[in-house]
Amino acid sequence: MEHQKTYIRHTLPHQNREIVVEGPVSPSHLQTLKMHPDLDAFRKPADQHAALVEIAGLPEGRIILAREDSTIVGYVTFHYPDEMERWSQGHMPDLIELGAVEVADDYRSLGLGSKMIRTAFEDGQMEKYIVFTTEYYWHWDLKKSGLSVWDYRTMMERLMKTVDMVWYATDDPEICSHPANCLMVRIGKEVPLSSEEQFDRIRFQQRFMY
């Protein structure tokens, strides 16, 4: 399918300077930028930068970022689900994963997470997709945030609800392995019923769960 990508740019004032929230960005633009050293939740900043460049080059890949001058201080990734996970079963062309969301420590009180996610959904860019995210407590920065696992879960749910993502049930073993884990989903207005039904079959694979 054709993946519509409309570049959008916002500026936010910050301490007599400005933060740019923009995307989807191109690999070439990403290569002109550097990662903030605190962006190390998933891998070393340099390695994560290389991963962002790779995702931005995918037909379906989208990187929305926040930057101060040429320094990336936050990012959100969108891409097809990993082929090792159940969500890739059926190779649905209209099923997109909201993958990583990360904001550097000193910028976490500015609402950049929600601003980046909302930017991704502007101009109806995601109406043809089922967008999902899997929230696992072991990915959460509980130590630096000082939040309990349940407070962090509430914060993540609130973040995803800014673009009308809602909790969905599933029998996926990883999500079911801890009650704080969850699946959140947004079904675009242009998604056909056949895709919704296929996604339901992926969500539930144990008959007794129906």
UniProtKB/TrEMBL annotation:
InterPro entries according to UniProt: AcuA, Acyl_CoA_acyltransferase, GNAT_dom
Domain N-acetyltransferase, first and last residues per copy: 19-170
CDD domains: NAT_SF
GO BP: acetoin catabolic process
One GO MF term: acetoin dehydrogenase (NAD+) activity
One Pfam entry name: Acetyltransf_1
Ranges in coiled-coil conformation: none
Recorded superkingdom: Bacteria
PROSITE patterns, A to Z: GNAT
UniProt-listed Gene3D superfamilies: 3.40.630.30
Signal peptide range in chain numbering: none
Protein name: GNAT family N-acetyltransferase
Taxonomic classification: Bacteria, Bacillati, Bacillota, Bacilli, Bacillales
